[in-house]
Amino acid sequence: MGTSSFDSISFDTQDGVARLTLNRPDKLNSFTEAMHQEIRDALMQVQTDGLARCLLITGNGRGFCAGQDLADLDMTALSDVLEKNYNPLIQTVTGLDMPVVCAVNGVAAGAGANLALACDLVVAARSASFVQAFSKIGLIPDAAGTWTLPRLVGLPRALGLTLLGNRLTAEQALQWGMIWEVVEDDALAEHTLALAKHLASQPTVALALTKKLLRQSYDNTLEQQLNLERDFQSAASQTKDFQEGVAAFLAKRPPNFTGQ
Ligand code: LHQ
Q1: Which end of the chain has the least Cβ crowding within 10 Å, N or C?
Q2: Ligand 1 center from residue 109 Cα (angstroms)
Q3: CA 85 and chain centroid, separation
């Protein structure tokens, strides 16, 4: 078990699950420079301490994340803010060598919505919502929204969401295939922790290779993708978890995967 002390987030790792909770509830967990630094530190721990086999991201209070804190922004240097904070954040989350679950506990707006959508399994509370708020303040969608949304919901819906900036309910997001599931508000924390613990007990290398393959598929031809599957299957077959999975199957017992 690992715990660390932060101000704008809380972070601990237990039973293979690294839990990162955005924790500025009064401001709907909007991102400040200090919060970005803490998230970077926490994600560095996830990548290096060898304790985590699944990352769970959520928010404290009635919101998940309202995007950039508009009161904590150098309005003349937005490209620096993206370069330093948001672009690496999205790259780290999508490239992380383990599944990332996002428990969207309330409104997810701007870069907060797009952080959620960059995660591998997005579970929303029934009262949660998604808002591409950028156009309301004269900005374009960032944090990979223009990449992620058309892939998740297609161009017509991506255009509608971003040009209008309306709130999309969790239920509608589910119907559109934008997220994995919706659960009742009071069940979200327990449900997503159980999901994350389950994922943390699975063959981590194979799961990490699988998410890479699926994300990579958008840029590949069929031939390239088949070649990548061949190479990644070869890598997966060299893990202890592959040996364990086959041995457990043949012995008709549950597997005990270690992530090795
Ligand atoms: C906030 C915020 C907020 C500060 C609520 N900031 N205080 C990054 C940087 C570089 C380049 C540019 O792009 C980006 C990425 C971005 O994310 S840009 C988009 C930034 N986000 C927004 O524009 C969303 C702004 N927020 C809203 O539209 C609403 O608050 C939503 C729809 C999220 C929720 O509405 P309500 O449920 O009605 O809550 P509220 O508006 O009453 O907010 C509660 C409090 O949180 C309130 O503070 P107060 O002191 O009055 O209680 C808000 O001012 C504060 N808050 N979002 N982004």
Answers
A1: N
A2: 7
A3: 16
Within 6 Å (CB) of ligand 1, which residues are found? 27-28, 30, 66-71, 73, 78, 81-82, 86, 107, 109-111, 131, 133-134, 137, 139, 142
Model-level pTM? Answer: 0.97
Q: What percent of the chain has pLDDT over 70?
A: 99
Question: What is the mean predicted confidence (pLDDT) over 92-97?
Answer: 98
* Confidence at residue 113, expressed as pLDDT on a 0 to 100 scale: 98
pLDDT single digits (tens) 182-193: 999 999 999 999
CB 31 within 8 A of CB 111: yes
Residue-by-residue DSSP string for 98-130 = S-EEEEE-SEEETHHHHHHHHSSEEEEETT-EE
CA atoms within 13 A on the CB side of 259: 18
* Spatial CB neighbours of 180, under 8 Å, sequence gap ≥ 6: 121, 122, 123
With 0-12 / 13-18 / 19 or more C-beta atoms within 10 angstroms meaning exposed / middle / buried, residue 68 is buried
Q: Is the Cβ–Cβ distance between 143 and 131 less than 8 Å? A: no
Nearest CA to ligand 1 atom 6: 69
pLDDT in tens, 223-247: 999 999 999 999 999 999 999 999 9
